[in-house]
């Protein structure tokens, strides 16, 4: 890892107000808006006697991950390729692989900061209990970040221009948001639909985070789905990614 490249990527990220808002601030802002609705602060039988706001904290965590991996990193990497930056870097001592590593650290770090912010605001503003199984929560969260970044790398590999990256990212973004439970929490989905969603990366992530938040170790089936997607997407990205 090249520290200079990492510092440069951090500076560039700070100059992107759109990324800062949608990755770092929007998930927590959405959580605050939902928490201000009185009915979201009362327990619901459909959610296993949880309050809707309790169910939406893991969802807010996943929104940041999905936005960072699917919308943020692909646009940045594809822009570098489109402008010939990667080709020029390949002729310098700084290898393109250093840039890819820095991108993953920057966008992965942004997703984790977003997750911590959502957890903190949920706890302080709406008395949402912090994850009762913190280690299991951390494992599920880390796997989710890896999957989000691997998915972003696949989108970058398939996109020749930033416009294509944006189009593919948007096509992937909304189904992943549905699977994460943005419009309907997984706990409230019909059983068959919940089982199907559980085989998607962020559907499995939502269920794993819910279980850890409730104090249980995340189901090995959900962690296995996340690990399988991480391996599959990483292999696809490695096979198809080109620097030029």
Number of helices: 10
Anisotropy-based shape: globular
Distance between the termini: 21 Å
Low-confidence stretches: none
Residue share in helix: over 70%
Mean pLDDT: 89
Number of strands: 0
- Give the oligomeric state of the chains in this entry, treating copies of one chain as homo and distinct chains as hetero: single chain
- Biggest pleated-sheet summary: none
Instruction: Give the class from helix and strand content and strand pairing.
Output: mainly alpha
Q: How many distinct domains?
A: 1
The ordered H/E elements are: HHHHHHHHHH
User: Radius of gyration from the CA trace?
Assistant: 18 Å
The percent range for strand residues is under 5%
Transmembrane segments: 20-40, 55-77, 98-122, 134-157, 164-184, 219-238
Family: Belongs to the ABC-2 integral membrane protein family.
Keywords: Antibiotic resistance, Cell membrane, Membrane, Transmembrane, Transmembrane helix, Transport
Protein name: Transport permease protein
Secondary-structure map:
Blueprint: H1 3-14, H2 17-35, H3 52-82, H4 85-89, H5 96-126, H6 134-158, H7 162-180, H8 191-197, H9 201-213, H10 220-240
Helix pairs in contact: 1-5, 2-3, 2-5, 3-5, 3-6, 3-7, 3-9, 5-6, 6-7, 6-9, 6-10, 7-9, 9-10
List keywords for this structure.
single chain, 244 residues, mainly alpha, 75% helix, 0% strand
